[in-house]
Specification:
heterodimer; A: about 270 residues; mainly alpha; MetI-like fold; 2 domains; two-stranded antiparallel sheet; about 0% strand; globular; B: about 280 residues; alpha/beta; ten-stranded mixed beta sheet; 9 helices; 10 strands
């Protein structure tokens, strides 16, 4: 058997096991809810059936319009806020990280800001910006900024001095250093911060939509709960889980491509 | 791929000794004294060191571990300002790294950029120079060719062995076209066989590019094999213990030169300075 074939079969084997465990989880869930017969905990088969008919295909045909109405606002605001936070935090973080003085002066403040649970900022945001999409956007951006900022600063401060000394020895101009040395060298840490933040973005968007209850998945879930449409509520939660999972996968794909060199470099022990 | 015992790989300069003695000063260190503060106590790394390097020379600096050799090299390169004393490159006082100096660091894994290919690493030091894109590419190809790594251009540093990575660092320095090359224990992290190949590479670089080279090393054999002169340092805080004129004939060959009685003699002389308290 060729090594390639063995590798493929190996992966198929792993995937098989993963699916088997996932399947077993659902089977157990189905059985438990079936036996419990609690109206607040419907069977997963029913939840996913409702999910499918709400956002994908119903008796009326494809549900693109509804998907667009509910999922798109949540995704757009959460991803948008996260990206804006990322760009700003990375830029500022690199600047702070490169300056020893700025680092020790600002880190306590940044750590404090990071320690405030972002949902606690909701009342302030509502006072400042009302209940609209821009409030939600700002809340997501604010909540996502701190982990990325801290990780960027950490990443920059952990850059091997030898790399920077090499840059000095060869007269590499400051602007080139920023994009070609500092940014790549700190990128493992930065991606770490972005992974943390993307989870926060989803949490915040759901909370913000629950409070302001207009459009989006969070709003859908809360509205369903208020109307005691338990199945719709659960379907919304499951859909949120799927969206979050897709976020992770997307980020992993991007990270794998951007950090291929890092895995290689780490794998080799000098 | 060079082989250690291949005589055709040998140096072919003759009478380098007399030619070099008359050459102008490429690099000069005058009365370098350096202190540093650690945990609120001042320590002296370098007591008093003066060194002269003439154009086209290979000067090896040896000393016991911890005597401040790396610090000295960084001062000579302009990466560090000494507490007192001056460094002159071609009659000009050094302030910051002079354009005519290229540095090869000891730890290649920490001076090559892991996210760039070998070719990109070499080209990186050329970006701001006045060369056009095609000229840069040519320079990169030429430098990689000179160190025997033309086939590794699109690999990443971590895919190469230690010796090859150090060659990349040397290629990068060559592409930069310095007139003086400073090397900080460049072969310390490399196995013996590879070290012989890289030592011969240094000699070839000096010959082909008319380079002036100052090489810091803890390896006494290496210092005698490579040099026109050996500067032996004392322990910390370091001063120049003794300077040995190396009159071994050129071309140098790994097996033959090392077997010569004069080599053994010089080696013993240098070694005795290091053993002294």
């Amino acid at each position: 058997m060729s090594s390639r074939r063995r590798a493929v079969l190996g992966r198929a084997n792993d995937l098989g096991w993963q699916l088997a465990v996932l399947g077993a989880f659902f089977v157990v869930w189905e059985i438990v809810t079936l036996l419990a017969a609690n109206p607040y905990f419907p069977r997963p088969s029913m939840i996913f059936a409702r999910l499918w008919s709400t956002w994908f295909v119903s008796e009326d045909g494809l549900e693109f319009a509804y998907s667009a109405e509910t999922i798109l606002p949540s995704v757009a605001v959460s991803i948008g806020g996260w990206l804006v936070a990322a760009v700003l935090s990375i830029a500022v973080g690199i600047g702070i990280g490169l300056s020893v003085r700025a680092s020790w002066m600002l880190l306590p403040v940044i750590n404090f800001m990071r320690s405030i649970p972002p949902p606690a900022l909701l009342p302030i945001m509502i006072l400042l910006l009302g209940f609209g999409a821009d409030m939600r956007f700002a809340l997501v951006a604010l909540g996502c900024a701190w982990p990325i900022l801290l990780n960027t600063i950490d990443g920059v401060r952990n850059i091997d001095r030898a790399l920077l000394e090499t840059a000095t020895a060869y007269h590499i101009p400051k602007s080139r250093r920023f994009f070609r040395i500092v940014l790549p060298a700190a990128s493992p840490y930065i991606f770490s911060g972005m992974r943390i933040s993307i989870s926060i973005s989803l949490i915040l968007i759901v909370i913000a939509e629950s409070i302001s209850g207009s459009e989006g998945l969070g709003a859908h879930i809360l509205t369903a709960q208020r109307r005691f449409q338990i199945l719709d509520m659960w379907a919304g939660i499951a859909m949120l889980g799927i969206v979050g999972y897709l976020y992770s996968i997307l980020l992993i794909i991007v990270e794998n491509r951007a950090l291929a060199w890092h895995r290689g470099a780490r794998g080799k022990s000098a | 791929m060079e082989r250690v015992h291949d005589l055709s790989n040998a140096e072919s300069i003759s009478s380098t000794g007399t030619a070099v003695a008359a050459a102008p000063l490429a690099l000069e260190a005058r009365r370098i004294h350096h202190e540093y503060v650690k945990d609120r106590t001042a320590s002296t790394a370098i007591e008093d060191i003066s060194i002269e390097v003439r154009q086209g020379e290979v000067v090896c600096v040896v000393g016991p571990s911890g005597c401040g050799k790396s610090t000295l090299l960084r001062i000579l390169a302009g990466l560090l300002t000494p507490t007192s004393g001056e460094v002159l490159v071609g009659d000009e006082l050094v302030d910051g790294v002079p354009r005519s100096i290229g540095v090869v660091f000891q730890d290649y894994s920490r001076s090559l950029f892991a996210w760039m290919t070998v070719a990109d690493n070499v080209e990186f030091v050329l970006r701001h120079s006045a060369l056009s894109k095609s000229e840069r590419r040519e320079r990169v190809a030429e430098s990689l060719e000179a160190v025997g790594l033309a086939s590794a251009a699109s690999k990443y540093p971590w895919e190469l062995s230690g010796g090859m990575q150090q060659r990349v660092a040397i290629a990068r320095c060559l592409a930069y076209r310095p007139t003086i090359m400073l090397m900080d224990e460049p072969f310390a992290s490399v196995d013996a066989q590879t070290r012989f190949e890289l030592e011969d590479l240094v000699l070839r670089v000096r010959r082909e590019f008319d380079m002036t080279i100052l090489l810091v090393t803890h390896d006494i054999d290496e210092s005698v094999y490579l040099s026109d002169r050996v500067v032996a340092l004392t322990g910390s805080p370091s001063s120049v213990c003794e300077v040995f004129e190396n009159d071994l004939p050129w071309p140098r060959q790994q097996i033959e030169t090392r077997a010569q009685p004069r080599f053994v003699e010089l080696r013993a002389q240098v070694a005795s300075t290091l053993v002294k308290p």
